[in-house]
Design goal:
It is built from four helices and eight strands, in the order E-H-E-E-H-E-E-H-E-E-H-E. By secondary structure, it is an alpha+beta fold. Helix 3 packs antiparallel against helix 4. It is flat, with a radius of gyration of 19 Å.
Length: 173
């Protein structure tokens, strides 16, 4: 088995994930960690997959090239050089939601807060949306926070959000 990562950038459309994962399956690939996000009117998909040694990457490239859903897309397949096994810091311990007015540097400021607590952002989704008072930011984070720093980490992130007049909610999972 060889492990690869596929990155796809395409116009968002219904059926894109089904087409790509179906193509991989039909060609003998086994999908592992996969992410998909709509970004404006575009989309980004990444997929780590295993490929039996007797199947070559050119077969995957050819199969993807034949997909109508990827006709105007950009995609790339590279060997995946990391372990597929998740370490402890990939375990989600909390779901955090932050919402409110847009502030330049907001993501950087919030993300930097986690460093001092040895916390790890496992997944992050942020959207700018039109609110009643202008542009607003809606951020969802799935994070790992070590047991020993959970209380202080959440307090600092909550205080940071509050100082920027943003709503903050954290739920342990």
């Amino acid at each position: 088995m060889n492990t690869y990562i596929l990155s796809v950038s395409a116009q968002d459309k219904s059926g894109l994930i089904a087409a790509v994962t179906g193509c991989l399956f039909d060609l003998g690939a086994n999908c592992g960690d996969t992410n998909f996000a709509v970004l404006g009117q575009g989309s980004e998909m990444t997929c780590v997959f295993d490929l039996p040694a007797e199947i070559v990457v050119d077969d995957i490239n050819q199969g993807l090239a034949e997909l109508e859903e990827l006709s105007a897309a950009k995609y790339d397949i590279k060997p995946f050089s990391y372990s597929k096994d998740h370490n402890e810091s990939a375990t989600i311990t909390h779901l955090i939601t932050i919402h409110g007015g847009d502030h330049q540097g907001l993501l950087a400021q919030l993300s930097e807060t986690f460093i001092q607590f040895n916390a790890n952002i496992v997944r992050l989704s942020s959207r700018q949306i039109e609110g009643s008072d202008g542009m607003e930011y809606h951020i969802e984070m799935s994070v790992f926070i070590p047991q020993s720093t959970q209380e202080s980490c959440l307090a600092v992130v909550g205080n940071t959000a509050s100082s920027l007049q943003l709503s903050f909610n954290a739920v342990a999972v």
